[in-house]
Write a structure and sequence with these properties.
Elements (H helix, E strand, L loop, with lengths): L17 E5 L1 H4 L10 H12 L4 H16 L10 E5 L2
Antiparallel strand pairs: 1-2
Length: 86
């Protein structure tokens, strides 16, 4: 059995802060040129659209990943959870 180490961080969250949890299928989605969606695209989406309500942000991210993939088949699950601090 392999031993895995995890880092732990503590964050002070404020009213209105948004946390986005996602599986690697989001950033590893690719188009027909085998270009990955990547962390930078996801980060830019959240920076621009993070003000949306959580369900709307999820829909927007999934829509952008779909648009980027141009119909290329997915090879992994795509799960997103968005939490807004109230």
């Amino acid at each position: 059995m392999t031993s895995v180490e995890y880092d732990q961080i503590e964050l002070d969250l404020c009213h209105g802060d948004t946390l986005v949890f996602y599986t690697d299928g989001i950033v590893e989605a690719h188009n027909h040129s085998h270009e990955l969606f990547g962390f930078d695209r996801l980060e830019a989406l959240v920076a621009t659209w993070g003000h949306l309500e959580p369900n709307d942000l999820i829909d927007h991210i999934l829509s952008e990943v779909d648009r980027f993939a141009e119909g290329a088949p997915t090879h992994d699950d795509m799960t997103i959870v968005v939490v807004r601090v109230h």
